[in-house]
Amino acid sequence: MSKLDVVVDELFGKFQQQFPLASRTSISKKVIDKRIDIFYADAHQIRKKHRLWLFGWARVVLKFQQRLLQAGYPPDGVKPLLLGMIMFSYNAK
């Protein structure tokens, strides 16, 4: 298993903790925002842990997008999530 696959698996696990695919119950916007913030913080820590810079992180994000779509997450929710993930992981301290 490549480093890329390990990082994507770790991200996917963190994402599923916050947004399980099997759970299709209605969640308030406030709760969704809080869960997204938690996921972004987790993604930032994963990026730092694996010492991924711009191009490495871009490869991770692309493969993570493919993994989310294959798992059945809605495309209209995946794209904004990933854009935020890219921005937050470099701006967070």
Q: Can you walk through the features of this model?
A:
It is a single chain. The protein is mostly helical. It has one domain. Helix content is about 75%, strand content about 0%. The protein is built from four helices and no strands. Helix 1 (about 5-20) crosses helix 3, helix 2 (about 30-50) packs across helix 4 and helix 3 (about 55-70) packs antiparallel against helix 4. The longest helix has 21 residues, at about 30-50. The radius of gyration is 13 Å and the shape is globular. The chain starts with a helix and ends with a helix. The model has no long low-confidence stretch (mean pLDDT about 90).
Short account of what is shown:
With 93 residues, the protein is mostly helical. The protein has one domain (3-91).
